[in-house]
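re: the backbone from monday

yeah here it is again, tokenized this time
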């Protein structure tokens, strides 16, 4: 992607760019510029560009649906645990009252 107004750098300027980038001189402003290789960026190609994967619309929709389903399952599970605990506590209370009634009659 060398600019139309750019020309290849001279031998002593070729080391301006890093990581295998191509150096060229922009003649209109007398400045050096670099054409970076695929994995680098920056004015001198000095920065490693981390690869990233973007989700397409279908993957994003599936991910959102999976998260919603997981949250619903956790909410339902929370209610089940809460009501089970409440029922066990109530049953213990009833049994304790029955025991106290039997004990007081004896």
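seq for it, each position gets an aa:
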């Amino acid at each position: 992607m060398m600019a139309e107004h750019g020309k290849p750098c001279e031998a002593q300027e070729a080391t301006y760019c890093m990581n295998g980038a191509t150096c060229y001189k922009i003649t209109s402003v007398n400045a050096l510029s670099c054409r970076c290789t695929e994995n680098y960026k920056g004015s001198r190609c000095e920065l490693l560009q981390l690869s990233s994967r973007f989700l397409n619309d279908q993957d994003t929709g599936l991910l959102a649906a999976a998260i919603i389903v997981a949250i619903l399952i956790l909410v339902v599970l929370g209610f089940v645990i809460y009501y089970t605990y409440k029922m066990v506590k109530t049953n213990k209370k009833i049994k304790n009252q029955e025991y106290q009634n039997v004990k007081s009659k004896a």
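Residues 58-104 form one domain. The chain is about 45% helix and 15% strand.
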